[in-house]
Amino acid sequence: MTYQNPNLAFNEAKAEAFAERFVGTLNEAALAIMTSLGHRAGLFDALGANPGLNSQVLSQKAAVNERYLREWLGVMVTAGVVDYDPRARSYTLPPEHAAFLTRSASPDNMAVTTQFISIAASIENELLERFRSGEGLCYHHFDRFHEVMAEDSAQLVVANLVSAILPVVPGLIQRLEDGIDVADFGCGRGLAMMALASVYPNSRFHGFDLCEDAFAQTAAEARTKGLENLHFEARDLSAAIELGRFDLVTAFDAVHDQADPKAFLRLVRQSMRPGGVFLMQDIGGSRDLEKNIANPFAPLLYTISSMHCTPVSIGQGGPGLGAMWGVETAEEYLAETGFASVETHRLPHDPINAYFIARI
């Protein structure tokens, strides 16, 4: 080793171990990008459904170019993700790996989440400029972030709403079956509201988001399905506006990157009927760095916070809370904006997020 700092003792073994670890980091980073590509191209799904195929047949099954496929398979084989039989020149995705990499594996499909790594890499130049200037970013800087967020949310939140999330609130499912008014603040693509509108036809569902483009596709699909109990509207949720009164308000991963999170929460409170419930899902980390060291998802969450949540908030003139604003801050904000009771829940299907039940 050539690097030496005269002010610090140098541990050769520690240096070697760190260098070895970073070889692994480079390989794992490469694997993450190729996993994202493989997910988008449907390669894991094709491998999972067709074990023991050579690259020619597999390329036909997946409708991709065989030459590019072989290079991708080289990554997957040398990374230990895909098994290779050199005699038959065939490839197999073990079922134990398919359980975390195919669309049929949802909500455990981690290939979905690897897409955030590619998105982060795509805005490196813009983020470097912001590191120097302190300015923020806007939603238009991100080509696929909301698309990926919607896919990630679909398997963590939407697919588990009825079975795992709504039951946290006693009696809520019965109320939805009987018929209540529901609003999702910061609805994004609006998949949660469309799912609930389909299951609970007696209730009325409203999705609000700053950008109409976010929910336009879902709104069109809802009209095609004849979901007359579902409506979407573009609104600035940090402003003092009148949205109506609701029995249930939800916000899924929508609060921490708002321009004014407390104004957002005050709007939620003033939009609730007596006896209403606010269901908020947000990152379940701590605001204290030392408490996040043992969190296996912490580096990923801080990366997403650095490249999207913090700069987007700053770009709107917000406080830049970041994704790791912490359950402590979330609970304090809910109390400060007038909620009389707050319960924080952790659910077995979701190791990343916390679920807050707040009442006025």
Automatic annotation (TrEMBL):
Lineage, top ranks: Bacteria, Pseudomonadati, Pseudomonadota, Alphaproteobacteria, Hyphomicrobiales
Methyltransferase domain ranges (all copies): 177-294
Cross-referenced Pfam families: Methyltransf_31, WHD_Rv2258c
GO molecular function: methyltransferase activity
The protein's name in its UniProt record: Bifunctional 3-demethylubiquinone-9 3-methyltransferase/ 2-octaprenyl-6-hydroxy phenol methylase
Organism: Roseibium aggregatum
Keyword annotations of the record: Methyltransferase, Transferase, Ubiquinone
Gene Ontology annotations of biological process type: methylation
Domain S-adenosylmethionine-dependent methyltransferase Rv2258c-like winged HTH: 29-103
